[in-house]
Amino acid sequence: MPVMPAILIDYRSLIRRAGEFGFRRASFDELQSGLTLAEHLTGQAMATPESISWIDGLTGMAGWVTGDPVEGVFITVPLSAEGVAAVRDGSFRPAWPALNHLACEGELCGGVYIGVYAGITKDARRAVMMAAGVTRVEFFAPVPCFARGATEDGKRSMASLGFRAIEGGMPDLWGQDPLPVQRERAA
């Protein structure tokens, strides 16, 4: 059986780096606003703020927003090895994942599931895309990353980040394998 890649998340650096793009960990009310915004933009029901708050409390990194009032939202779910397998086989439930599917704070992270990333303004959309690309490369490159293609715009933006449609598993599943590690070359 092949060894699955796993990482320890540097939360302090992740929060700092997300802040450089205007993102902060969301309060419950901000999550509610962000999820309402995401539902408006995608035309699809989102997880509840209660669910995201529960996931965020366990993982230390699920709910992110930008703007005041909220103009952008980014929901990230760090996955355990069991969570990665569940995403691939279709048994993962994004709205209320099984506890063993989560990489709780301080545990090894085997992958990341993106619940939603969306912005209502041009600046918020730019911040979302920049934060998505930079955090993927700087923090989560060694592990696979997954998301659902909820809208045509979302599918285009995921394709621009190097994601591809994955057959089987969850409906409309998109993913990206671990990225090659860039090593600095000697001069």
Provide the succession of SSEs.
HEHHEEHEHEHEE
Strand ordering within the main sheet: 1-2-3-4-5-7-6
Main sheet summary: 7 strands, mixed
Give the beta-strand count. 7
Topology:
Blueprint: H1 11-19, E1 23-25, H2 28-42, H3 49-59, E2 63-66, E3 72-79, H4 81-89, E4 111-119, H5 122-139, E5 145-148, H6 152-160, E6 164-165, E7 173-176
Parallel strand pairs: 4-5
Antiparallel strand pairs: 1-2, 2-3, 3-4, 5-7, 6-7
What structural keywords apply?
187 residues; alpha+beta; seven-stranded mixed beta sheet; 7 strands; 38% helix; 18% strand
Description:
This protein has helices at residues 11-19, 28-42, 49-59, 81-89, 122-139, 152-160, and strands at residues 23-25, 63-66, 72-79, 111-119, 145-148, 164-165, 173-176. With 187 residues, it is an alpha+beta fold. A 7-stranded mixed sheet has the order 1-2-3-4-5-7-6, sandwiched between helices. β6 and β7 form a beta hairpin. It is globular.
